[in-house]
Amino acid sequence: MPPPGTEGFEITLRFGLTGKGEVRGKPLATYSVLPGPPDRQRAFVAAAMLALHNCTPVLMSPEFARVAASRVLTLRLISAGRRAQVPGAAAGEEGCVLS
Fold first, then answer.
1. Where are the alpha helices (DSSP H) in 11-99?
2. Do 35 and 8 meet the contact criterion of CB atoms below 8 Å apart?
3. Strands (E), the chain
């Protein structure tokens, strides 16, 4: 969940996954729009990193793990000022979606 006061902020993270679905190395921010004061910028970036951390390790089949471990992935996070509902999740339930 994005921190309050970060509506319109966005960040794109580039990272890799290990064959066990864990983040390989440190994610790299390749793009960002952070129009607020420095304290809100830091809070938003920290929340983005925490979101990625909370979605890993990714459960993968052995076949998919071999493919995913050799790829660079990007994740775009946008603060829209409202809580999005994760498809398939019960109301009020949080989750991670890879698409």
1. 38-54, 62-68
2. yes
3. 10-17, 23-33, 72-78
Tokens of 21: 């679905």
Instruction: Give the sheet arrangement for strand 23-33, strand by strand.
Output: 23-33, 10-17, 72-78
Over the stretch 32-43, which tens digit does the pLDDT of each residue have?
A: 999 999 999 999
**Residues 8, 14, 2: CA angle, nearest 5 degrees:** 30
The rounded distance, in Å, linking the Cα atoms of 60 and 68 is: 9
Half-sphere exposure (Cβ direction) of 66: Cα atoms closer than 13 Å: 2
The model's pTM: 0.78
CB 13 within 8 A of CB 53: no
Q: Which amino acid is at 76?
A: R
Assign 87 to helix, strand or coil: coil
